[in-house]
Fold:
Amino acid sequence: MTIAAVIGLGTMGAGIAAVLARGGLTVRACDTAPAAVERARGELPAIAGLLDRLGTPARGDATAVAFAGSLEEAVAGADLVLENVPEKLELKQQVFRQIDAAVGTDCIIASDTSGIPITKLQAVVSRPERVVGMHWSNPPHLIPMIEVVAGRQTGTATRDWMVALIRGLGLLPVVVKKDVPGFVENRVLYAIMREALDLVEEGVIEPEDLDTCVSWGIGYKLAIVGPMKLLDMAGLDIYQSVASYLNPELSRRADVSGAIAERIGRGRLGLKSGAGLFDYAPGELQSLRAERANRFVAVRKALTED
Ligand SMILES: NC(=O)C1=CN([C@@H]2O[C@H](COP(=O)(O)OP(=O)(O)OC[C@H]3O[C@@H](n4cnc5c(N)ncnc54)[C@H](O)[C@@H]3O)[C@@H](O)[C@H]2O)C=CC1
Ligand SMILES: Cc1ncc(C(=O)O)c(C(=O)O)c1O
Structure:
């Protein structure tokens, strides 16, 4: 029986813990914030229901996650530890050191970092060959693709073990061949985000209309035909003509849009604080999350039908 420990139970933690538990792993989880533990505990039954509806192979009970009082208690005897704390290099390195001091020599240490090079995380542990990126996508219990990222010192056996684990969970591992910042998913996503924010800030489009354009024009299409195959679908000659005048016009800003800092300064962090770029009515968040989850389930089922 594989024992896994999930460290950090914020936006991502509960969904990941539930998927691992349903896949038959023995799962322990911890967070330094008691409120995060209670929120995660409360989320598990609904997540288990969604996994039932997706028809994910059930080798275990998705709600069977043991909440530990400390990191050391969570990782004791673990075969896999998944670090899932906020995206800050120093914090992640400190947690990696703490994990390294508490686990056995064969334990694989993975990170769900959105894009900090794995090479920087494995630099602080005693067995860097056993460190690997395992980058899930939000909501982790609904998005089937997981990036597997080897740092410069990651062993091939560690990478292959991770790929096999993800396949065994019935999910889609994608191996990222170079440890570049942002890996692949977020390099593509953040190119979209940068352009989208620029277009809204420049008054080219309203935020709601930007979302309609991307979801129904680009997103719907890309779910069926990825960007590489889309080039063939459009015609490479057309792409060359458009890209030759459009590429120089696209955003190249190296800083982060001021609109984001302005909202953060007002405590508007998004769904987790009840408001972000959009306002949400009190009581709306739960139904919004449930409605989105229903759509994710329906679309995933439709996309995997023969
Ligand atoms: N939010 C997203 O859409 C995605 C986030 N990620 C990545 O996953 C990681 C976690 O992200 P979120 O869940 O969104 O963050 P979050 O900020 O929602 O949650 C992080 C949790 O870690 C806890 N924590 C902080 N220090 C800790 C420590 N020393 N030991 C144990 N717990 C600790 C916090 O109390 C908090 O509950 C980040 O690296 C992020 O970039 C990856 C994919 C998607
Ligand atoms: C805005 C944003 N940033 C990072 C990620 C990630 O994959 O790390 C996501 C996501 O959807 O998973 C995201 O939306």
